[in-house]
Design goal:
The structure is a homodimer. Chain A is mainly α. Helices cover 59% and strands 12% of the residues of chain A. Chain A has a three-stranded antiparallel β-sheet. The radius of gyration of chain A is 17 Å and the shape is elongated. At the A-B interface, helix 1, helix 2 and helix 6 of A face helix 1, helix 2 and helix 6 of B. The structure holds a DNA duplex.
DNA sequence: CGCCAACGGTATCTATTGGTAACTGGCTAC
DNA sequence: GTAGCCAGTTACCAATAGATACCGTTGGCG
């Protein structure tokens, strides 16, 4: 019996979140949008090397989850602006905890890897 | 310029961590091992529906990263025990923050999803 | 008028990955 | 003897991630 939610049940909603976090791009999008709304190309350029298709998928998923809002301006040239919703913004904290951990332990992990590979 | 490490650089080590967290099984393994060492089958049964191949992959990767240690007892029948290293144990906190967030916001996410799908 | 660029994406193809099913080898229980 | 446990491995398949190319609209430029 797991008290803190049944993460071990495949149908557990927590899994959904973890899948999103693991999405590789979701986290980057959240961090990029932390300082304000951005357009599609700004996100693409900010992330670096992302296929537009994948970025679109990520953004749609995040929109569906209520993490970002998508505003289309019917201008020429078209303009689409992505903004963090309050819920999306609340993800910044957990993510920061993770990235902090990552930065702290990265040297140890690298060391462990080289040791492991040396054997 | 990103002050808290350049997560946006594809070569950034933080990415490695995020990939692990996104690993879908890594998190489960950490949570299962929180209460003490477990054997391969215990992990498999605890997670529920995991192909042994995938579990092996996950555990090898975690071993390589220095998150778990693997002990083989040359007995009959063979016995292999997996234990969280101190570094692996330190991952519990960030993960808990995430799962807490997930549980808190899950209703809102579900609602957002049904709303989105209804349109 | 013809050409090109900017924007926010699609369309198509390939590579990687996650996953299933079946098997291994040494033993033990029925 | 044959069925099954343990900790995986091997062969194979489906779904996904990613790279590359392309689309429609319009405005500027020659």
């Amino acid at each position: 019996m797991v008290t803190k939610g049944n993460v071990f049940d495949p149908n557990c909603p927590t899994r959904v979140i973890l899948d999103r976090i693991g999405d590789k791009w979701t986290v980057l999008v959240v961090l990029l949008l932390r300082d304000g709304p951005l357009r599609f190309t700004e996100l693409r350029d900010g992330i670096g090397r992302v296929a537009p298709k994948v970025l679109t998928q990520t953004l749609r998923r995040m929109e569906r989850d209520g993490l970002v809002s998508r505003e289309v301006f019917a201008e020429i040239p078209p303009r689409v602006v992505y903004t963090l919703t309050p819920m999306g913004a609340s993800l910044i904290e957990p993510i920061s905890v993770l990235t902090d951990w990552a930065e702290t332990h990265m040297p140890a992990i690298s060391k462990a890897q080289t040791q492991y590979d040396a054997v």
